[in-house]
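so my prof wants the structure for this chain in the tokens format not the other one, which i didnt know existed until like an hour ago. anyway here's the sequence
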Amino acid sequence: MKLIKNIKHNILDKYINISDKYQYLYILIIFIIILLIYFIITNIPKLIISKNGFTSETDNKTYEKADKIVYCCWTGNNPMSDDRKRCYESILKNIGVKVVLITPEKLNEYIKQDYPLHKSYEYLSYTHKADYLRTYMMHIYGGGYTDIKQTDYSWEPYFDVINNNTEKWALGTTELGAATVACNDNCDWVADNWNKVIGNGSYIFKQQTPFTTEWFNKMNKLLDDKYEELKKNPAQVPDDIPGKEITLPDGTTIISKYPVGWAEMLGGIFHPLCYKYHNKIIHALPPINTSHYR
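here's what i got, hopefully its the right format
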């Protein structure tokens, strides 16, 4: 019995010595695993963004200051409602800088020969024409854009903010929340980072930055891809969207085959780019007033 006990003790002693020898290795392995888990959790959004071609970029080039001018768009031949006229008058009265209203009659004055209107433009809804034109103006000219909605403050101080900051390219208002963020691809990570995204209703941009260049090019690529479908199924109403029930002038009701989704031309392109270039954007403008504008 004594011999057996001695053998057991010798085995246990050896096991304990081995355990003592490797306990630091075990601790090191556990520490490395914890670090890996932390890295994965904190970098999943970055890995997804990189996979989809969205990486926050640094560009220290200085771009021209934004002209103190704000563009508005009224793309149809339909008259403005009384509420819309009141909103436009508030812009003229309060915004504090030059205002240009782009209408079908004045459109050609602002289309440059080197940057002609996209051939799909004539088939777009009034809403999507406005989406196209704000993109065009921000890229080609720079300056400000606002929807025709109630405006009660001057934009001049905000132009000073963006123009005095050579490292920033845009200034706007933070989006309202994840529900108002759009993306044309499967990229929920944009909505998850909604507080780094600015809204589409009002902003100031310096012209021809990497942001506006990519924005303009992506919109033109979308219209290239949709051109044949748009020719076959042009917009029937000012706010046409796919699947919309439309009553034609002759009283016939149809389901729209218009091929461009509501946010496909603007938010679906613009919001992911806001996240990509979030380090180049200033969040400063007050939220746009969306009451009583129709």
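also thought this was worth mentioning. Helices lie at 2-51, 82-94, 126-140, 156-163, 188-192, 210-232, 267-276.
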